[in-house]
Specification:
The chain is built from seven helices and five strands. It is of the alpha/beta class. The chain has a five-stranded parallel β-sheet with strand order 3-2-1-4-5.
């Protein structure tokens, strides 16, 4: 199971001027979609992705673009694990936002691999069982 992070979805569906790595990552995501690979989007990622759109048209276009991805909602076990991840990061001096801790926890709890371009998750993975999807 591949869990899609905001950074990947943003590259694929939001950015007007993509980063240098974007074409390869967007192509990889397209291939994974074409192959019908099992992918999920945490609800908090959907919220992050849709937040900050300038117009209702942009919001609706973006919502339609990601509508095919099943959304996974956080439950109590996810929030408990997220707190443990956050505490472990703090003990090790690793910066970890509440949202990133929840995304990491949800990914671990469903036995998935997180597809992200956010380097913060590499640090988070050192203190928990987070598996990152290899894309480089």
């Amino acid at each position: 199971m591949i869990v899609l992070d905001t950074s990947v979805l943003s590259l694929a569906f939001r950015r007007r001027k993509p980063d240098a790595d974007a074409p390869g990552l967007v192509a990889l995501l397209g291939t994974m979609i074409a192959e019908d690979r099992p992918m999920r989007v945490p609800g908090i990622v959907l919220q992050e992705l849709l937040s900050g759109t300038r117009t209702s048209e942009q919001f609706n276009r973006l919502r339609a673009a990601v509508a095919a991805f099943p959304v996974v909602l956080a439950g109590e076990a996810d929030h408990v694990r997220a707190a443990a991840v956050s505490n472990a990061c703090r003990r090790e001096g690793i910066a970890c936002s509440t949202v990133d801790a929840l995304i990491a926890a949800m990914t671990v709890n469903i036995g998935g691999q997180l597809f992200t371009t956010d380097a913060d998750f590499e640090q988070i993975a050192t203190v928990c069982d987070l598996s990152l999807f290899p894309h480089a």
